[in-house]
Write a structure and sequence with these properties.
This protein is mainly alpha-helical. It contains 17 helices and four strands.
Length: about 475
């Protein structure tokens, strides 16, 4: 693969997407119109026949419509997808337009395709052949998009907008299939998506990045870093994600105690991960200075790791332990694992999604398996066990030990789908027709955006520029962490 990559990188790439990008956007959007026309319909709670449905089901008030219960959570999740993820990717000094803009593009297309893909697996009426959607469908579509947005983090700065649409098309498809296997066939519980969203999305992006390895990416090293204001914008994304993560994990849980408990456990785990992240970040530097990379990312690891177990009776101290450990593990990932992966496995992970999503997602899945296997009737009550693990119908006789085994198996399925699916999609994205940038032209908005000139540039003196994002952190002590750039 190395020789092949070398040969491809020697060819100057054509980044003109004037034909390919409009063609893909128009054709795929028209396809969505046609497919929605054929398959998508309103469900009973959003259809104009709601009044008749109320009478037939003895519903006395409009407030019992699921919209009023789920919509606040949908709003929070929606903000996370479009604002949280978007601004988290603005840390690169000259790639903020693309970080926010391509995130917007991925999510806008992905949610449409997700409504169809998830509908075919979960909401297709066999009698009418139609998919019915409501507010919970919108939440699940956002969840589905999250997998592709996580994958985008590993590819940030190295792919074209056409490639983002292609890996979103396949990513949403793979997500819908693995979600169906894990949640329906294996009957796993994963309300916050440690397995189906984070482990899958993380390993999906990592596998694509590995296949798309760029041996001469150091030619763009000057732009693969942050400046003061770009890190501040990225921190805005972190804060939105951190604040709304309890809603993300609890958005589709059962009404009542299950949702309440999920929000509490996520809230506590997130708080715990902040302190351990700060501790490890400070301890890793000789003068105890904090690294914004760690604060932007590892502080969220507690929310990722609690995605599966938050609905269970893990207890508040258990949630603290999960956040405590994942904050440490995630920060160590940025310090040691990311440099190791790039040096020895040729895996270029721009945002460090391995440390924020893939690894904490895997740990969260296995944590859920352990907590499920340890569940007892004295802690949950007989009905509580049935409600929490949905031990009904064909799964009524399943034991908690068996459930724990299936939870672990579900985690493995998510990882396998991410790795194998990502490798195959990466091979498709290697075809030289997508308009991706050359190795010396990555991490630059000017490749795909009209960028306004900075008028003040000529009048300001040379500035000290913080250029220290992740891979540049461990430079020789003889080198300064700051560079002077002449205007």
């Amino acid at each position: 693969m190395g020789n092949c990559c070398e040969a491809i990188s020697n060819v100057r790439k054509n980044t003109n997407v004037r034909v390919s990008l409009p063609a893909v956007c128009f054709v795929w959007q028209i396809a969505m119109v046609v497919l929605f026309g054929v398959f998508i319909r309103y469900d009973d709670e959003s259809d104009a026949h709601w009044e008749e449905f109320k009478e037939e089901n003895n519903i006395t008030s409009d407030i019992e419509n699921d919209f009023y219960f789920r919509y606040p959570s949908f709003q929070d999740v929606h903000v996370m997808i479009f604002v949280g993820f978007g601004f988290l990717m603005t840390f690169l000094k000259r790639y903020s337009f693309s970080g926010v803009g391509f995130n917007f593009l991925i999510a806008a297309f992905g949610l449409q395709w997700a409504l169809l893909m998830q509908g075919w697996f979960h909401a297709l009426d066999p009698n009418t052949g139609k998919i019915t959607i409501g507010v919970e469908s919108l939440i699940n579509a956002d969840f589905c998009c999250a997998g592709s947005l996580i994958a985008y983090g590993a590819l940030l700065g190295k792919v074209s907008p056409v490639q983002t649409l292609v890996f979103t098309l396949f990513g949403v498809t793979l997500f819908a299939v693995e979600e169906y296997i894990i949640l329906d066939l294996l009957h796993c519980r994963d309300a916050g998506g440690s397995m189906v969203i984070h482990a899958f999305g993380g390993y999906y992006g990592l596998a694509i990045s590995w296949v798309l390895y760029r041996p001469k990416l150091k030619l763009s090293k000057r732009l693969n870093g942050s400046v003061y204001h770009s890190d501040v914008f990225a921190m805005i994304g972190t804060l939105f994600l951190w604040m709304f993560w309890p809603s993300f994990n609890s958005a589709i849980t059962d009404h009542g105690a299950g949702q309440h408990r999920t929000a509490i456990n996520t809230y506590i785990a997130l708080a715990s991960s902040v302190l351990t992240t700060v501790a490890i970040s400070s301890a890793s530097q000789k003068r105890g200075k904090l690294d914004m990379v760690h604060i932007q990312n590892a502080t969220l690891a507690g929310g990722v790791a609690m995605g599966t177990a938050a609905e269970f009776m893990i207890m508040p101290y258990g949630a603290l332990i999960v956040g405590f450990l994942t904050g440490i593990i995630s920060t160590f990932g940025y310090l040691f694992i990311t440099p190791f992966l790039e040096k020895y496995l040729k895996l270029q992970d721009t945002c460090g999604v391995h440390n924020l999503h893939a690894l904490p997602g895997m740990l969260g899945g296995f944590t859920g398996a352990i907590v499920a296997a340890a569940a007892t009737e004295s802690v949950y009550s007989a009905q509580g066990l049935i409600d929490t693990f949905d031990f009904e119908d064909e799964f009524a006789g399943r034991s908690v030990g068996t459930q724990g085994g299936f939870q672990a198996a579900g985690t493995c399925v998510a990882i396998a789908f991410g790795l194998v699916g990502g490798a195959l999609v990466g091979l498709i994205l290697r075809i030289p027709i997508w308009g991706d940038p050359a190795d010396d032209n990555c991490f630059d908005d000017e490749v795909y955006w009209e960028v306004p000139e900075e008028e003040e540039e000529e009048s300001i003196p040379p500035v000290l520029e913080y250029n220290n994002h992740m891979i540049e952190k461990h430079q020789d002590l003889s080198e300064s962490n700051f560079s002077v750039e002449q205007s």
